[in-house]
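Action item from last meeting closed. Structure (315 res):
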C-alpha cells in the first residue's frame, strides 16, 4: 500500500479550537475588528502549543463576516504561524432560530464560502441558539436550561430543508458539512441525530458526534458507548472533549466538570477505535472549557497520538 493511502497516528489531522480565546478583548473591543497583529498573537500561541492545524471557531472570529481583504490578512498570519485551517466551526447560529433563522441561514452560506477561501474541507453547523441570561451568568453554561427545539413536524422539516440547502451549497463548493450534536436540539440525542441526518439525506452532510455536549449535562443521559455506536457511522468531523461525571444513584444528584480526554467518563481510546472501525477518517478538533484550555487541548492532542492506530488505510 502506498504511503499516501495511509494515515498514521502522527499524520492524523488533529486541530486546535479557538475556544480558549474570547471574541471580546479586555478593553471591550471585538476580535473581529482588531488588527491582524492581534490575530497573529493568538495563532502564534496555538502554534507554540505544538499544533499545525487550527479551527478559527466563530466564537473567536467570524470568518464568514470578513471582507476579502481581511480574509487575506487572516490567511497571511495563519501561514506565518505555520498553521493550516482544515475545518471551520460555527456556534449558536441555528437556521431555525425563531428570531434569527433566516439571517443565520445566510450567515451559514457565507461560512461555506469563507471555508473554501481558507482551504477548509468541512464546516460544522449546529441547531443550538444563543445563551440565555441564566446560562451566561452560570459558571458552566450547560448547568442552566437553554432553548429547546419544538416538537413540531413543520419546524423539523424546515430544519431538514435548510440544512440540505447548505449541503447542496457545500457540494457545489467541493466541501462537506457536519452537524454538531447538542442538547435540546433536533441533534440532541443519538437517535434524533441519526434520524435528522438521515432525513437530510445528502452525501455531503454528516454528523459531528460531540458527545461531550451531552455527557456534561446534569440530567440522565444515554451511555457514551451506546451513543457512539449509533452516531459514529455517520461522523465526518469530530469535536473531542471529555468531562468528569458523578452520579449518585441514591439521590439522583449529578455533577460534571471539564476533564482532559484521558481522564473523563468517556473512554476515548475505545471511542477512537470504534470510529475508525465505522469508517471515520476526518479531522479531530480538540476543545476544552476552563483553566488553560489551550494547554489542555495540547495534552489531549498528544493523548490522541498515543491511542490512534499506527497505520490506518484512508479508505
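Sequence:
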Amino acid at each position: 500500500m502506498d504511503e499516501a493511502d495511509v494515515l498514521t497516528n502522527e499524520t492524523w489531522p488533529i486541530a486546535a479550537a479557538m475556544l480558549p480565546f474570547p471574541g471580546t478583548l479586555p478593553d471591550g473591543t471585538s476580535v473581529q475588528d482588531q488588527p491582524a497583529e492581534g490575530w497573529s498573537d493568538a495563532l502564534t500561541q496555538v502554534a507554540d502549543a505544538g499544533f499545525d492545524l487550527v479551527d478559527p471557531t466563530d466564537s473567536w472570529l467570524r470568518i464568514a463576516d470578513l471582507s476579502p481583504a481581511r480574509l487575506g490578512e487572516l490567511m497571511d498570519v495563519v501561514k506565518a504561524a505555520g498553521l493550516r485551517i482544515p475545518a471551520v466551526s460555527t456556534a449558536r447560529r441555528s437556521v431555525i432560530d425563531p428570531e434569527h433563522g433566516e439571517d443565520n441561514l445566510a450567515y451559514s452560506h457565507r461560512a461555506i464560502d469563507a471555508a473554501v477561501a481558507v482551504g477548509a474541507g468541512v464546516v460544522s453547523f449546529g441547531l443550538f441558539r444563543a445563551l440565555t441570561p441564566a446560562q451566561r451568568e452560570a459558571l458552566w453554561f450547560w448547568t442552566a436550561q437553554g432553548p429547546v427545539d419544538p416538537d413540531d413536524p413543520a419546524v423539523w422539516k424546515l430544519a431538514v430543508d435548510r440544512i440540505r440547502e447548505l449541503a447542496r451549497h457545500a457540494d457545489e463548493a467541493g466541501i462537506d458539512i457536519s452537524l454538531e450534536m447538542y442538547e435540546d436540539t433536533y441533534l440532541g440525542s443519538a437517535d434524533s441525530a441519526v434520524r435528522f441526518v438521515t432525513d437530510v439525506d445528502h452525501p455531503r452532510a454528516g454528523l459531528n458526534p460531540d458527545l461531550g455536549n451531552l455527557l456534561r449535562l446534569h440530567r440522565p443521559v444515554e451511555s457514551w458507548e451506546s451513543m457512539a455506536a449509533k452516531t459514529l457511522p455517520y461522523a465526518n468531523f469530530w469535536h473531542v472533549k471529555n468531562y468528569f461525571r458523578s452520579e449518585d444513584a441514591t439521590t439522583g444528584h449529578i455533577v460534571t466538570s471539564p476533564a482532559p480526554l484521558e481522564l473523563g467518563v468517556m473512554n476515548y481510546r475505545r471511542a477512537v477505535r470504534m470510529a475508525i472501525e465505522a469508517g471515520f477518517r476526518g479531522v479531530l478538533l480538540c476543545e476544552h472549557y476552563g483553566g488553560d484550555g489551550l494547554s489542555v487541548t495540547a495534552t489531549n492532542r498528544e493523548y490522541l497520538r498515543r491511542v490512534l492506530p499506527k497505520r490506518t488505510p484512508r479508505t
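Note appended to the action item: Residues 22 and 60 are 5 Å apart (CA to CA).
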